[in-house]
Specification:
The complex is a heterodimer. Chain A is an alpha+beta fold. Chain A is built from four helices and three strands. Chain A has one domain: Winged helix-like DNA-binding domain superfamily/Winged helix DNA-binding domain (Arc Repressor Mutant, subunit A). Chain B is mainly α. Chain B has one domain. Chain B is elongated. Classes of the chains: A alpha+beta, B mainly alpha. The interface between A and B is medium-sized, with 27 and 19 residues.
Chain lengths: 97, 199
Amino acid sequence: MFPKLDPILHSELRLAVVSILAGVDEADFTYLKTRTGATSGNLSVQIDKLSSAGYITVEKGFKGKMPRTTCRLTPQGQQAFADYVTALKQYLSVPKD
Amino acid sequence: MTAQQSLSLITETLNNSRKEITRGGGKYFILWGCLLTLFSLLVYCLWKTTDKAAWNNLWFAMPVIGFVLERIIRRKDAAGRVQNDVSRILGGIWASFGIFAVAVSAFTVIYTQINPNPLGTIAVVVGLTAEIVLLFGLAECISGVALKNWAIRIAGLVTDVGGLIIYYVANSDKEQLLIFTFAGIVLAVTGLIMKNQKK
């Protein structure tokens, strides 16, 4: 029996965002947009979904006079990401007929 | 998305994050490499022309200028720069090296003023230049290990071996300064390799 893949993470853009955040302390919106190549609108929607699930924290502030949105992976998000990778490995370790 | 595609996406993203940090570090290698090259040549030329070892005090201006320039670059980079454990380790390695190099050099200058050595300056007796260049190459090599980058590890080794060859071949204290010119060029070239790493 295969474990169910987390539907929050099993989306290309959300998974990309969480993967980026897993490798850094925090990243701002512009950085995530550049790295994922997503549009601002789409990225904003997906960040909200991750935030609502409690996987990331979103902090809005200012850098000088410019608004800055900073995202950071929460411990819950780290655990979900680790579980997701473990589940993926189980899918891939099944020998093909 | 299939499981294979998901795993590939995760692997690629994590690898890209590491490359991004390597590329980001490249400009600091270039900055310090250029400063080291310029200062070593400047001190060498002034010392050779005037025959006054006091020009070596100019070295103490290098970390000050470097620190200011680094702050300017960091401020410009703020939006596109991220931090993680690797970048913190890199910062720690080079800060430790910088503190060591400045502290040992300052100690040498002060000690030489207070207690002149009949065998020559204490810098010559303890092989200060060789000591610093060895640590410099070691810091570069450890940076390569942290970044999992062979070019940087090899550059560290080249700095150490090349630096020691110049140290033993050099005929005078003045010529030994060219070790730092060599180390600076290697550091700047390594920075260029890091900065132009493929995405």
